[in-house]
Every structure is written in structure tokens, then in C-alpha cells.
Amino acid sequence: MTVSFHRLDPVGADRTALVDFMTRNVFPFHVRPRLTAQDVEEQVADGAYRDEDNDTYWVEHTDLGRIGVLRLEDLTESAPLFDLRLDGPVRGRGLGVEVLRAATDHVFGTMPDVHRFEGQTREDNIAMRKTFLRCGWLKEAHYREGWPVEGAAPVASVAYAVLRRDWQSGTTTTFVWEDLTV
Ligand SMILES: CC(C)(COP(=O)(O)OP(=O)(O)OC[C@H]1O[C@@H](n2cnc3c(N)ncnc32)[C@H](O)[C@@H]1OP(=O)(O)O)[C@@H](O)C(=O)NCCC(=O)NCCS
What we know:
This protein is an alpha+beta fold. The chain has a single domain, classed as 3-Layer(aba) Sandwich (Aminopeptidase), CATH 3.40.630. A four-stranded antiparallel sheet has the order 1-2-3-4, covered by helices on one side. Strands 5-7-6 form a three-stranded antiparallel sheet. The longest helix has 16 residues. It binds coenzyme A. Coenzyme A binds next to strand 4, helix 3, strand 5 and helix 4. It holds the Pfam family Acetyltransf_3.
């Protein structure tokens, strides 16, 4: 296993490094592509990185060191979501697949009540969509004009998920996508 997760303390030891990571990187496919230190401080104060629903980890790679941040959301539900942000210099090397596989192992391996794990991204975030598909996740929704874009028209939001039973068996089951004939 080359990827591991280290729970970070957003109000204590990791605060400065977290603000640095979130402000020196650009996230072109997030609602807020550039964050200021004040934005991050507000998110920390709101509990976005750690409270009963949220938790955040440094993504560590055995050869490359710290390569990103993984945030889990909706942890009080049995179907959490995630937000994965790799550091700029390590993007574009296919590492997302390894990290998402490890994140899925982490969630299902440490959270016995969780039966599905979800993620959403913009339709034009091809790197993330390919990462989902390469990890065996299934597209379950395509929300037209569901993702606001500052200064431009909204784009679609696409939702993918993996079920615990598919993770256990190493398969990707599907469902009848076509709607009723009326
Ligand atoms: C999204 C993310 C996790 C993907 O991980 P990654 O390791 O950087 O993924 P890659 O850039 O290697 O892309 C995976 C595949 O998509 C392809 N791809 C990327 N952008 C593409 C584009 N615009 N058009 C076509 N293919 C594209 C890559 O070529 C690659 O395919 P290949 O292996 O066949 O060459 C990472 O880039 C990241 O953290 N981005 C910023 C934050 C973000 O958007 N997070 C997602 C929100 S959950």
C-alpha cells in the first residue's frame, strides 16, 4: 500500500499547513477555485474540516510524501461523501486512482455502518470522472445545470457511488437506468 491517510487537526497542529495547502493550490472544478486564508479560516471555524459530520486527512504517499487532502462529509449518515484535492505538482500522473481506492478501503474498512460511499463532480472534470470509473464506481445521477460556475453558465453535476457489497466482491453492479415507459 503506497497511499495512507493521516487524520489532521484543523484547529491545532495542522492549521497553518492546511491553510497553506488550500490557498497555494487552484481547484478549477470546485465552486470556489481559489480560496483565501480567510475563506479557509472560516471553513475551519464552521467545522467543515472536522465536526460530527466532517473529517479530514492528509494523503501521504510512501515515495512522494504528502500529496493531498481528503475530506469526508456526512459522516453521521450511512452514506458519506468525499472531497479529494491532490497537490498541483502531483496531478496528471494517475495517482487519483490509487488514492480513491485507498479512500474506499479506509471508509468501508473502518466504518462498519457505511454501506455506500459517494462522490460528486462537475461534468467537465474528466480526470475525476475517469478516476471514478477506473475504481469501479458507478455513475448514478447527472444533474443538469446543477453546478454553479462563477461568471458563467452552470454545468451539470455528476454523481458516482460504490456499494460496500461491490467493494467486497470486487464487482460493479448496476441498475435499470431507463425510466418507465408511459
Ligand atoms: C481530480 C484528481 C483527483 C484526478 O487525479 P489525477 O491523478 O490528477 O488524474 P489524471 O490527471 O492522471 O487523469 C486521469 C485520466 O483523465 C485524463 N484526463 C484528464 N483531463 C482530461 C481532459 N480534459 N480530457 C480528456 N482526458 C483527460 C487523463 O489523461 C488520465 O487518463 P490517462 O491515464 O488515460 O492518460 C486530481 O487531478 C485533483 O485532485 N484535481 C483537483 C481537485 C479536484 O478536482 N478534485 C475532484 C473533486 S472530488
